[in-house]
């Protein structure tokens, strides 16, 4: 259902943009997206929808600290997902707790319909 991709072409240095890991769980009524991104400032996380694409963007513009060693970077994050008409966009909600961004994506009525068997004649 989802085809996550890292956003290019936004004028960012590709090495500087992080693509954090995501788990997506499907239930009968919704998709639950968990994006692992520790140490973010909640107010700098931007979640938008345009058409049928959900985008998650984080950009921390504060001055970088002078690290002796740095093995992870969370200054700029970008992920986007094609919702393929299966999500009720006006009912999406999100929370950020203990380094995990959780986005609840309620299914549209059409996406909730169970699979049906087709009789072969």
Task: Please give a structural write-up.
The chain is mainly beta and 121 residues long. The protein contains one helix and eight strands; from the N terminus they run ββββββββα. It has one domain: Immunoglobulin-like, CATH 2.60.40. It has a four-stranded mixed sheet with strand order 1-6-5-4, with no helix packed on it. Strands 2-3-8-7 form a four-stranded antiparallel sheet, with no helix packed on it. A hairpin with a 2-residue loop joins strand 7 and strand 8. It is elongated and about 70 Å long. The N terminus is likely disordered.
Shape: elongated
H and E order:
EEEEEEEEH
Measure the end-to-end span.
30 Å
How are the strands of the largest sheet arranged?
A: 1-6-5-4
> What can be said about the biggest beta sheet?
4 strands, mixed
Judging by the overall fold, what is the CATH architecture?
Sandwich
Q: What is the CATH class?
A: Mainly Beta
> Which regions are unreliable across 5 or more consecutive residues at pLDDT < 50?
1-15
In brief:
The chain is mainly β and 121 residues long. It has one domain: Immunoglobulin-like (Sandwich).
Helix/strand layout:
Elements (H helix, E strand, L loop, with lengths): L16 E2 L3 E5 L3 E7 L8 E6 L2 E7 L16 E7 L10 E5 L2 E7 L2 H4 L9
Parallel strand pairs: 1-6
Antiparallel strand pairs: 2-3, 3-8, 4-5, 5-6, 7-8
